[in-house]
Amino acid sequence: MLPLTPATIRASFVNASRKEASDLTLPANFDSLDWDQLDFLGWRDPKLERRSYVIVPSLDRGATGVLFRHPGSSPRTRAQCSWCNDTTLPNDVVLYNAKRSGKAGKNGNTLGSLVCEDFQCSENARRYPKAWYEGFDREAERQRQIEELQLRVAAFAAQV
Ligand SMILES: [Zn+2]
C-alpha cells in the first residue's frame, strides 16, 4: 500500500468519533514502516488497552479506518484468521469487534471478525507456501495469497 500520513489516518475512520480518532496513538515503528510490504495497516493502541485500528487502502476514499475492540481473551481452540486464511499461523487469532458505521452502529450493531491478534496478515500472506507437487509455482501462489488478503480486507472495510 502507499504510505499514509497521520492526518489521513485520523480522518479515515468510518466507525469512530472525532475524539476516538484524535485519542489514538500511532504504532511505535510508524516512521520506519515498510509500506510496500503491507496490504493494510493494523495495530493495537500502545496506550489504550483493548483498542485496535485497521486502515485499509480504498480507491474512492483514499483510506478506510476501522476501530476495533479487542475481546480481552483468545478463543480456546486455535482459530483460523479470516483475512490471511493461514492454517499454519505463528501467532494468535482473536475475535475482533467493530462497531458498524452510521445508524447501525448507533443502534449497537457490531461486526465480528477472527483476525491475527497483532494484524500480522500481510506478513503471513507473504510467506512462501509449501511446494505441494513438483513444478508447483510457489511465487504465483504467494501472489495469490496476497491478492486474496487485499480482497478480503477491502470487503470487510466496505461492510463496516
Ligand atoms: Zn491474519
Characterise this structure.
The chain is an alpha+beta fold and 160 residues long. The chain has one domain. The protein contains five helices and five strands, in the order ααββββαβαα. A five-stranded antiparallel beta sheet has the order 1-2-3-4-5. The longest helix is centred in the C-terminal third of the chain and has 22 residues. The chain is globular and about 55 Å long. It binds zinc ion (ZN). The site of zinc ion (ZN) has 7 residues, from β5 and α4.
Which terms summarize this structure?
five-stranded antiparallel beta sheet, single chain, alpha+beta, 160 residues, 5 helices, binds zinc ion
Summary of the model, kept short:
By secondary structure, this protein is α+β, with helices and mostly antiparallel strands. Helices cover 28% and strands 21% of the residues. The protein has one domain.
Order of helices and strands: HHEEEEHEHH
Give the quaternary arrangement of the chains. single chain
**List of distinct ligands in this structure:** zinc ion
- Rg of Cα set: 16 Å
Explain the layout of strands and helices.
Elements (H helix, E strand, L loop, with lengths): L5 H6 L6 H6 L17 E4 L6 E8 L3 E8 L23 E7 L2 H5 L3 E7 L4 H5 L12 H22 L1
Antiparallel strand pairs: 1-2, 2-3, 3-4, 4-5
Zinc ion (ZN) binds next to β5 and α4.
